[in-house]
Amino acid sequence: MRNAMPILHQMQMSGNCYKVRLAAHQLGVPITLKDYGIHDGATRKPSFLKLNPNGRVPLLEFEDGRCLPESGAILFHLSDGTKLQPNNAWDRAQMLQWMFFEQYSHEPYIAVSRYWHKFAPPDEFEKKRHLVAEWQTKGNAALGVMDVHLASHDWFAGKDYSVADIALYGYTHCAADGGFDLGRFPRVSAWLDRVAAQPKHIPLAARW
Ligand SMILES: N[C@@H](CCC(=O)N[C@@H](CS)C(=O)NCC(=O)O)C(=O)O
């Protein structure tokens, strides 16, 4: 049976899932939300593993049953041919460069630090406390790289706001939750304001 519209399998407080809600909202792509708990292991149950063997959200399930996990891949697919992707190959490559940077050099420190500081049970966080210094060093390095880029650019790819900005916004705007001081990165702070001022912007807490 076909779904009436794409279903976003998601966790509301996840920045990775927020990226998809934000892009879908700005593009006018209707989606329904199916929520999973942070601590109940719901994405590791057989019924979900059939949809994404990697056991993680976001996962976008299309009307015809096809399933696409990974926030960056979903952003890329939703924005194909729209104003949220640059219209030339070089700028699109820059867009992907920043999306890969986000996944390898940014999210593993900034998102992970936020999870353990804000959402993990305190006794579990204590077992990870020895990693905080590395998260801080590497997360601050990523914010520094962004700040350098923003010294001479308004946006991360091409001349306009794109899904590269959405990918980086997801966890940068809430980096303080993980103990990061955005006051050290004034150009990043100014860019966050520019992103939040885009038409049809929604905050992380918004359902749609
Ligand atoms: N690289 C993936 C990361 C996805 C991810 O880490 N998802 C987390 C929530 S933010 C999750 O599903 N955690 C549940 C689990 O690992 O069991 C993406 O960008 O979508």
Largest sheet: 4 strands, mixed
Sheet-strand content, in percent, reads 5-15%
Strands of the largest sheet, in order across it?
Answer: 2-1-3-4
User: Structural class of the secondary elements?
Assistant: alpha+beta
Shape: globular
Question: What's the helix-strand series?
Answer: EHEHEEHHHHHH
Notable traits:
binds glutathione, 208 residues, four-stranded mixed beta sheet, alpha+beta, 4 strands
Give the helices and strands, then pairings.
Layout: E1 7-10, H1 15-27, E2 32-35, H2 46-49, E3 59-61, E4 67-69, H3 71-79, H4 89-119, H5 122-128, H6 132-150, H7 163-172, H8 186-196
Parallel strand pairs: 1-2
Antiparallel strand pairs: 1-3, 3-4
The structure holds glutathione.
Structure characterization notes:
- The protein has 208 residues and is of the alpha+beta class.
- It has 8 helices and 4 strands, in the order βαβαββαααααα.
- The chain has a 4-stranded mixed sheet with strand order 2-1-3-4, with helices on one face.
- The longest helix has 31 residues, at 89-119.
- The model has no long low-confidence stretch (mean pLDDT 97).
- It binds glutathione.
- Residues 11, 14, 16, 43-44, 55-58, 70-72, 103 line the site of glutathione.
